[in-house]
Amino acid sequence: MATDEKSRRASASVRAKAKRVIADSWQSQANLSFFLILLVLFSFVFPVLGFGRKDTTLYADATFSLLLISGVAIGWGQRWLMLVAGFVSSTCIAVRWMNFFTPSTTLQIWSDAWSLVAILVIAFVLLAQVFRPGHVSHSRIQGAIAVYLMFGAAWAHAYHLAAIFQPGSFSSTAGPMSNATDWIYYSFVTLSTVGYGDITAVRPIARTLSIGEALTGQLYLAVLIARLVAMEVIAWQESRTSNS
To answer: Which domains can be identified in the chain, with CATH numbers?
Structure first.
């Protein structure tokens, strides 16, 4: 009887360990890569192919909802993190779709605000997986790239909020900035510090946000590279110590 009990415990331990290994692999590799692929497809590839031209708002809300759900799934295994991300993302999705069906200025403000918070929370979830102990894999780098792109989306919502509260905050050579693609375009031009000049910040709040995004884009890349290199060196040293 004692032997059978030990055997069952050993079998249960093996199964639990196997589940942890599968979960860790899914979290740190497949899901990070999948999220980046979705982000690139929805943000850059599909719009070029013509998706969303007839109804930009519908396309933006649908794709944003799918990205948030995918981002929440990355927190699987970290209960508190997944609960926070799930609450913020579900609230954001609800508010965005309320604004889609019954648009108003108030709902638009809440939609942008919750979208901004949700993006930052998902970015934190991604970074929690990117900076986990261990060797720096391709999936971690892909997750870090996804965070960089998420920053661009977050600042786009901040610019839209600034334009709502202070009309005339931005000046564009192409006319009024009326849709999400304009804010996304300006955001990524500023994040990468390209600065074409076709859209410029006019009001103080808009200028402050633009400076903040430009600094974020540069500092994030510098800190990220330093952190990933340090992680890889530490992991290599630990691996070498354990093998010796």
So the answer is: 27-243 (1.10.287.70)
Residue 242: what residue type?
S
Q: Write the Ramachandran bin of 123: left for phi over 0, alpha for psi from -120 to 50, otherwise beta.
A: alpha
Q: At what angle do helices 180-191 and 204-243 cross, to 10 degrees?
A: 60
Q: How far apart are the first and last CA of the chain?
A: 41
Is the distance from CB of 110 to CB of 99 less than 8 angstroms? Answer: yes
- The predicted-structure confidence for 59-100, as pLDDT tens digits, reads as follows 999 999 999 999 998 887 788 999 999 999 999 999 999 999
CA pair distance 54, 81, nearest whole angstrom: 37
Residue 58 contacts by C-beta under 8 Å, 6 or more apart in sequence? 52, 100
Q: Report the alpha-carbon distance of residue 143 to residue 64 in Å, rounded.
A: 17
Long-range contacts formed by 237-240: CB under 8 A, 24+ apart: 239/135
Q: What pLDDT does 46 receive? A: 86
> Cα–Cα distance between 73 and 141 in angstroms, integer?
18
Q: Which tokens is 164 given?
A: 């709502």
Alpha helices by DSSP H, 166-203: 180-191
User: Which residues contact residue 143 at a Cβ distance below 8 angstroms, ignoring those fewer than 6 apart?
Assistant: 32, 35, 36, 126, 127, 129, 130
Distance CA 210, CA 190 (A): 7
